[in-house]
């Protein structure tokens, strides 16, 4: 006898569990385009830079979790800035009001350094960007404008009268949460000759890559010589045993 308040369960009944929706990961940004940024004074080029630039920034989502967004500086941003004897500034504006301002400075020659040993470098980078839902999926701060500056940099360092060149990726930290990523870089902020780059000084990372190839080839050749030598010795030993048996 089944009590009137009892519940019966069919033997083939199927329990349907709720569907769990996993958070989507935004697709990675495509490869950044290399742009040519040029400043002129009276028709003469005073600053020239070839760079492919990306930005990466952490942000907080609506569920409180921290995520990371990456985006490119697009082709042909608006270029402005100024050139001076000791300080030059390059400003890039894109996607509305987003900006990247790069300050180049000369390092004063002192001590054993001569005037010909004078260096230039990026001493400061300031960025302004808007935290949009398109760029920062599920952000809890959509529409917020962020400004980040690092004025204590020594990046893209080269000799005055030369250009600085680095094809390898360079990650320039602007804060705990924001980074500028530069690749395919060649810059000269002072003293260009004939409106073009002077002799390039390559960064250590590029030299390491270029040194790997001859080292790898040398190791491969050395290994091949060892293999041939071992094969020769084994063959000679077998031949010697054959002579003894005769």
TrEMBL record:
<keyword id="KW-1015">Disulfide bond</keyword>
<keyword id="KW-0812">Transmembrane</keyword>
<feature type="transmembrane region" description="Helical">
    <location>
        <begin position="212"/>
        <end position="234"/>
    </location>
</feature>
<keyword id="KW-0732">Signal</keyword>
<dbReference type="GO" id="GO:0005765">
    <property type="term" value="C:lysosomal membrane"/>
</dbReference>
<keyword id="KW-0472">Membrane</keyword>
<dbReference type="Pfam" id="PF01299">
    <property type="entry name" value="Lamp2-like_luminal"/>
</dbReference>
<dbReference type="InterPro" id="IPR048528">
    <property type="entry name" value="Lamp2-like_luminal"/>
</dbReference>
<dbReference type="GO" id="GO:0010008">
    <property type="term" value="C:endosome membrane"/>
</dbReference>
<feature type="domain" description="Lysosome-associated membrane glycoprotein 2-like transmembrane">
    <location>
        <begin position="213"/>
        <end position="244"/>
    </location>
</feature>
<keyword id="KW-0325">Glycoprotein</keyword>
<dbReference type="InterPro" id="IPR002000">
    <property type="entry name" value="Lysosome-assoc_membr_glycop"/>
</dbReference>
<dbReference type="Pfam" id="PF21222">
    <property type="entry name" value="Lamp2_2nd"/>
</dbReference>
<dbReference type="GO" id="GO:0005886">
    <property type="term" value="C:plasma membrane"/>
</dbReference>
<keyword id="KW-1133">Transmembrane helix</keyword>
<comment type="similarity">
    <text>Belongs to the LAMP family.</text>
</comment>
<feature type="domain" description="Lysosome-associated membrane glycoprotein 2-like luminal">
    <location>
        <begin position="34"/>
        <end position="192"/>
    </location>
</feature>
<keyword id="KW-0458">Lysosome</keyword>
<feature type="disulfide bond">
    <location>
        <begin position="166"/>
        <end position="203"/>
    </location>
</feature>
<keyword id="KW-1003">Cell membrane</keyword>
<protein>
    <recommendedName>
        <fullName>Lysosomal-associated membrane protein 1</fullName>
    </recommendedName>
</protein>
<keyword id="KW-0967">Endosome</keyword>
<dbReference type="InterPro" id="IPR048524">
    <property type="entry name" value="Lamp2-like_TM"/>
</dbReference>
């Amino acid at each position: 006898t089944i009590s009137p308040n009892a519940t019966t369960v069919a033997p083939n009944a199927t329990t349907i569990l709720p569907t769990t929706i996993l958070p989507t990961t935004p697709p990675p940004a495509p490869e950044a385009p290399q742009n040519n940024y040029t400043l002129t004074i009276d028709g003469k080029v005073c600053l020239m830079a070839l760079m492919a630039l990306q930005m990466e920034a952490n942000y907080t989502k609506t569920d409180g979790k921290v995520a990371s967004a990456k985006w490119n500086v697009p082709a042909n941003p608006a270029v402005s800035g100024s050139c001076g004897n000791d300080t030059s500034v390059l400003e890039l504006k894109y996607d509305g009001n987003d900006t990247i301002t790069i300050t180049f400075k000369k390092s004063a020659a002192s001590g054993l350094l001569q005037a010909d040993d004078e260096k230039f470098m990026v001493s400061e980078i300031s960025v302004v960007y808007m935290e949009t839902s398109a760029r920062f999926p599920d952000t809890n701060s959509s529409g917020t404008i962020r400004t980040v500056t690092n004025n204590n940099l020594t990046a893209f360092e080269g000799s005055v009268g030369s250009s600085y060149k680095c094809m390898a990726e360079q990650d320039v930290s602007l804060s705990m949460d924001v980074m500028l990523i530069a690749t395919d870089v060649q810059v000269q902020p002072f003293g260009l000759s004939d409106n073009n780059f002077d002799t390039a000084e390559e960064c250590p990372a590029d030299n390491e890559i270029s040194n790997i190839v001859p080292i790898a080839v040398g190791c491969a050749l050395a290994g091949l010589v060892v293999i041939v030598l071992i094969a020769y010795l084994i063959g000679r030993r077998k031949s010697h045993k054959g002579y003894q048996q005769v």
